[in-house]
């Protein structure tokens, strides 16, 4: 009760005793010029444009020009004209998440859009544009996180609190892979941000791909491609704010965002409207300044909870070195590359193992697991080096022992990397199956061994055995 009273008192103190408003002095496209509020507004401040019929359109300040504030709306400008009022609103927007948000679908403003009634409100406010935890106070990444996808669990092992990027062109299987991860992960909570998604596909993805089981432990934030850029940007901020709430409840959160590229495109639209010069492929400098601010919010917290981030990057023209992909790859702790050529061979998920990497490996693996994965990668690499000669029949078996070995194991490895959307594989089963395919001995007790963690478990088991004896 004292916490509730303090929170309410803080809100009451922030309520202004009088209303400040300006007037719309100019409109150009989606950009609105507001006069009369230049002394009280600042970058990022909010105001409400009062349209004809007393309809209020929330807007945000993105710049100033000749003593006029430049604002972008969160909604349609229909009915907004010269002379319309612009009322000052909260300058630091917050949300109040609640554990009952699990299983719900909301928009960028934190409003329900699933027809299941109003959302309960939590006590603690969370800023939409919060700062990442201090680097010196953060915990280290945790133990392995079982994501249920065999190729990722085995070759690209992810740990709790790690941040991974999923890089792919359009139509290569990003959304299906995300739905598999949401359904099969061992994380406590999923927070899923669909940024700039096609409106037609949202319901299909929720019902067919994510399913009732995945939705039950997820919060889904949706901003479709037809919404204004501020809505798409805010949906990304809201996704991280909700994930931070559950992290602070000492839960392990899997935060998935599809996609960072559309967030960057929204930032580009905002920057160009504010008059920023384009820097690289039309992207403004503020885009590359904002990306680390967003992505660094994921990761380990200062307590027991963590946010494991999986961020998709839509590479334009299948160019994995385009500006956004290159910037995101340098920020995250690993990348999963989905390749169109593999998808065209009908192998899903279309992960190119050789071009993908997890920066927590091999630190989270035992020596036996590292050796096994290294051998499998070596076989795949040898085959890919000779793939062209093999396909045209120019390679003669017996010419090279390493190539012969890779040729013998390649079909089994391709089958291992393939997985249906309704299949789930546990992390320990992946190593055992890979060892069997490569004719390697694999004691059950070595499976999923983790330095430090398993040593401690082994010591506890020995102590227990001595007490029993």
From TrEMBL:
Main localisation: cytoplasm
Keywords, comma-separated and alphabetical: ATP synthesis, ATP-binding, Bacterial flagellum biogenesis, Bacterial flagellum protein export, Cell projection, Cilium, Cytoplasm, Flagellum, Hydrogen ion transport, Ion transport, Nucleotide-binding, Protein transport, Translocase, Transport
Compartments reported by the entry: Cytoplasm
Domain of life from the UniProt record: Bacteria
Extent of the signal sequence: none
InterPro entries noted in UniProt: AAA+_ATPase, ATPase_a/bsu_AS, ATPase_alpha/beta_chains, ATPase_F1/V1/A1_a/bsu_nucl-bd, ATPase_T3SS_FliI/YscN, FliI_clade3, P-loop_NTPase, T3SS_ATPase_C
GO biological process, one term: bacterial-type flagellum organization
SUPFAM superfamilies xref list: P-loop containing nucleoside triphosphate hydrolases
Pfam families per record: ATP-synt_ab, T3SS_ATPase_C
GO molecular function, one term: ATP hydrolysis activity
Keyword match Nuclease: no
Protein EC: 7.1.2.2
Domain AAA+ ATPase: 160-343
Catalyzed reactions: ATP + H2O + cellular proteinSide 1 = ADP + phosphate + cellular proteinSide 2
GO cellular component: bacterial-type flagellum; cytoplasm; type III protein secretion system complex
PROSITE patterns hit by this protein: ATPASE_ALPHA_BETA
Free-text function comment from the UniProt entry: Probable catalytic subunit of a protein translocase for flagellum-specific export, or a proton translocase involved in local circuits at the flagellum.
Family stated for the protein in its record: Belongs to the ATPase alpha/beta chains family.
Protein name according to UniProt: Flagellum-specific ATP synthase
